[in-house]
Design brief:
This protein is mainly alpha-helical and about 140 residues long. The chain is about 50% helix and about 5% strand. The protein contains 5 helices and 2 strands, in the order H-H-E-H-H-E-H. The chain has a two-stranded parallel ribbon. Helix 2 (about 40-60) runs parallel beside helix 4 (about 80-90).
Length: about 140
């Protein structure tokens, strides 16, 4: 993990009183390589919670969004990949100002099935925005 992003975020804020927001919410979309037979759901959840806590220790109470992985890819190996998906979905019950953003179904890339195609990435981005906007309004 590179917390140097925190330095950039602090420096880019117009003033010290400007609310900071965490705009690197795509943990879920980066978790595909973690879906291994030996990775347990509870271990993965604890590690993800540690990452959230580290970011917040550095930046304050920033929102944290977790993007869902390609649903069809998860379904193809529910025993292993489902554990990571379940950990992602559980985070909002463990930390305030966090949300799980569902990955769009039917939007996987034809070449590998593990990544979203362009339309799916745009839809996931819109879902991030809607979720983030709802968090900011509440």
């Amino acid at each position: 993990m590179n917390l140097a992003r925190g330095d950039w975020m602090r420096a880019s804020a117009p003033s010290p009183s400007t609310p900071r927001t965490g705009w690197w919410p795509s943990c879920g979309t980066r978790a595909k390589s973690d879906a291994l037979p030996k990775v347990r759901e509870d271990w993965y959840r604890r590690k993800l919670l540690q990452i959230i806590d580290l970011y917040r220790a550095e930046l304050g109470p920033v929102p944290f969004l977790i993007g869902g992985m390609v649903p069809e890819w998860i379904a193809a190996d529910k025993k292993i990949r489902g554990r990571i998906d379940a950990a992602h979905r559980s985070i909002p019950s463990h930390r305030p100002q966090t949300a799980f953003v569902e990955g769009p179904a039917g939007a996987n890339g034809a070449s590998d099935g593990i990544h979203f195609n362009a339309a799916g990435a745009r839809e996931l981005g819109l879902r991030y925005y809607r979720t983030f906007s709802g968090m900011a309004a509440s």
